TrEMBL record:
Residues 5-60 form the Chitin-binding type-2 domain. GO terms for cellular component: extracellular region. This is Chitin-binding type-2 domain-containing protein. Pfam families: CBM_14. It comes from the Eukaryota. GO terms for molecular function: chitin binding. InterPro entries: Chitin-bd_dom (IPR002557), Chitin-bd_dom_sf (IPR036508).
């Protein structure tokens, strides 16, 4: 829809950045503003707060070994993201 940022799931609210666990978007009138969590924290979309990475439920936190995982921001290659290396539980 014209005039709406793709990261705004609603007119107003806080929404996760699917490509960066430390960032989130604050949307107002369908326009997104990028915000950052403090160092060492990830955005928790369930509670709309910056949280411990282990409880934030960020899709970039590795919960299984290297492989192919859904990429919510890329429809090429069947919407999959090939993960070759994990570092500290994060996609590198």
């Amino acid at each position: 829809v014209n005039g709406r940022d793709k990261y705004c799931a609603d007119e107003v609210g806080y929404f996760s950045n699917p490509l960066n666990c430390n960032e989130y978007f604050y949307c107002e009138n369908w326009k997104a503003t990028v915000k950052n969590c403090p160092h060492g924290f990830h955005f928790n979309p369930h509670h709309a707060v910056c949280d411990d990475p282990l409880t934030a439920d960020c899709p970039k936190v590795c919960k299984q070994p290297d492989g192919h995982f859904p990429n919510p921001d890329d429809c090429t290659q069947g919407g999959m993201l090939k993960v070759k290396e994990m570092q500290g539980g994060m996609i590198k």
